[in-house]
Amino acid sequence: MNKNIILLGLAMGLHTAYAQETISPAPAQRKPVYLTHATIHVGNGQVIENGTIAFSQGKITAVGNNVAAAGDATIIDLKGQHVYPGIIAPETSLGLVEFESVRATIDLREVGEINSSVRSIIAYNADSKVINTLRSNGILLAQVTPQGGIVSGASSVVQLDAWNWEDAAYKTDNALHFFMPRLLPVGSGSGPATNDRTKAALEQIEKVRTFFREANAWLKEGKHSATNLKFESMRRLFNKEQKLFIHCDLVKEMLLAIDFAKEFNIEVAIVGGTDAWLIADILQKNNIPVVLTQPHSLPLMQDDDVDQPYKTAALLQKAGVLYCLSNEGFWQQRNLGFEAGTAATYGLSKEQALSAVTLNAAKILGIDNIAGSLETGKDANIAVSNGDMLDMKSSVITHAFIQGREINLDNKQKQLNAKYEQKYGLK
């Protein structure tokens, strides 16, 4: 009886396993590839009509109108399709969460308020079923970010076609994350209670400032009797090998973020930045980039224009502030390109909107030397679309390459769609 139950369980497990899509990472690029007769959107504002892009051993070797194939190469005639840099998704919990309602699939946060030594990369699940749904929309890189506490730890950039987290790592520990407590406007809410919350928030911010000061002093000392992991983890930040991403939205919070950059002589980026348009000149003057999150949302304040989140990117562009777009979360990231398309409707040009999810993101994440645009010498992270990749209606991704490897664009959702089209005779 027990043996039969075990065999039945194994059979059900195998059935479940085979019911899932099996998509293995692509092998390394073996010979040169030429994508021809395409409209090439470089990512830096340049558009090349009827162009060719060539790449070999994972690197782009030529881009332009007069690129001729040579030797034993794979030639793909795109016949007027559009070629783009792969979209980069900053600020995501991709690979750290699989099902929001199942606790065992969530590895997003650690206990405690200050967790500077936490590294999100070692918790990244390269087998997440969500990853494939992003790749189908041209999203090929992501910044995996931890949460929890005030200082949540270090994020890393991953490429989305990997066997494991070591294989996925594209730039490890690129940023430390500080989730600044909300400083509510004075007079809002319930009066004294609001002031109490603001006071508590300021105390937490000061606690982080004290931690930074102590870590800086500890690192300047010659020898220590014991290693302090939290202090030691701050070394890369103070050496400017890492940025501090400060999550905040209100003007007074962003001004405090600028104070952090000045006091500790570190590189700071603002994440959220809902009210960044109000102090765009100050941000530009202090060279503070902004990761605009949730561009498809209602405004933060009741007296803001209802379309303010849509047009904030254009206001930052006009002021000369470096910015990019992010959708936060994990499965929502698949719509990031379409949100850039919305920004193009509210003041950006199409190429500026493309840069907001490619080259600008690469600059802020510190990977623009190898990613973010289709330029010679950079990694061949390429998405090919039948139509406009930023338009939900016309975008159909037909090919995608990560570091020159052509990846499988199948996913569970596509398979379910095909299954029920067949079941109900819809094909």
TrEMBL record:
Extract the signal peptide range: 1-19
- InterPro entries (UniProt xref): Amidohydro-rel, Metal-dep_hydrolase_composite, Metal_Hydrolase, Metallo-dep_Hydrolase
The chain positions of domain Amidohydrolase-related read: 344-405
Which GO molecular function, any one, fits this protein according to its record?
A: hydrolase activity, acting on carbon-nitrogen (but not peptide) bonds
One matching Pfam family is: Amidohydro_1
Query: Coiled-coil region(s) at which residues?
Result: none
Keywords carried by this UniProt record: Hydrolase, Signal
Record-linked PANTHER family: ALPHA-D-RIBOSE 1-METHYLPHOSPHONATE 5-TRIPHOSPHATE DIPHOSPHATASE
Protein name according to UniProt: Imidazolonepropionase-like amidohydrolase
